[in-house]
């Protein structure tokens, strides 16, 4: 599979995962996907200032998006026995759900130990935290009623495999919810370009002292799947009832799907 299963917006998917029947023009170059250990190393090293860098880079909108997404996900109702957060980070998204009700079981997974330490400090003993790769989930089939993940999809190398894993661990009728950074459309897209191409890599690189990582972040937002492409991939992985909720002109998008 080309580019770890990735293709860029505008390409026409000619088979199950985006190898077009023909290209009138060569496809635009996509950023090389960094090795897993490089991504993990990056999150380990910025964990202690991850929340403050995020707030600065997003002008605190990340908080508003998590809050809005959690409300939307919980409004849909459904069984709320067991919840799983993939790429739990410092626990900010999962915290929103733990505050809403008591779950039979709550689990956060992340491969970065330093992020998990911060999640533990934030969430206390209200949930189980597991250090693992989200591509291969260490859970039995049908273990969770709700799987959530915020701002992590771009770190997934093989989306079809990942969605397959998410579907496997969900109970029948269970829900998956992905909150992602996306590209706005129309006029906001034009205004967003200088932010994405200059501010984000420059300021992110300076604050984190990981310029490469923030260049990758900027490039991956520019080339990552659009929400309709994610929807298509979820549907080919067997999910149904996929719905898309753009926030702030599409700067972030919540995607909900049902097993
Ligand atoms: C951008 S952060 C998002 C954290 C959190 N969900 C939030 O809303 O702030 C992505 C998180 O996913 C984790 N992550 C990325 N790739 C992963 C993988 N393959 N397996 C496990 N965790 C991963 C990173 O360590 C990081 O904590």
**Radius of gyration from the CA trace?**
18 Å
- What is the molecular shape? globular
What oligomerization state is this entry in? single chain
- Tell me, what is the CATH class? Alpha Beta
Ligand species = S-adenosylmethionine
Work out the helicity level.
40-55%
CATH topology: Rossmann fold
Number of strands: 7
Strand line-up in the sheet with most strands: 3-2-1-4-5-7-6
Taking pLDDT < 50 over at least 5 consecutive residues as the criterion, the unreliable ranges are 1-28
* CATH superfamily grouping: Vaccinia Virus protein VP39
Task: Tell me the number of structural domains.
Answer: 1
Report the end-to-end length measured between terminal Cα atoms: 25 Å
**SS class:** alpha/beta
What would you say the CATH architecture is?
3-Layer(aba) Sandwich
List keywords for this structure.
7 strands, 259 residues, Rossmann fold, disordered N terminus, globular, 9 helices, 7-stranded mixed sheet
Q: How would you concisely characterize the structure shown here?
A:
The protein has 259 residues and is α/β, with parallel strands linked by helices.
List strands and helices in order, with pairings.
Elements: H1 36-46, H2 50-58, H3 61-75, E1 82-86, H4 92-98, E2 105-110, H5 113-123, E3 128-131, E4 144-150, H6 159-169, E5 170-181, H7 187-208, H8 211-223, H9 227-236, E6 240-247, E7 252-258
Parallel strand pairs: 1-2, 1-4, 2-3, 4-5
Antiparallel strand pairs: 5-7, 6-7
Bound molecules: S-adenosylmethionine.
S-adenosylmethionine binds at residues 39, 43, 87-89, 92-93, 110-112, 115, 133-135, 150-152, 155.
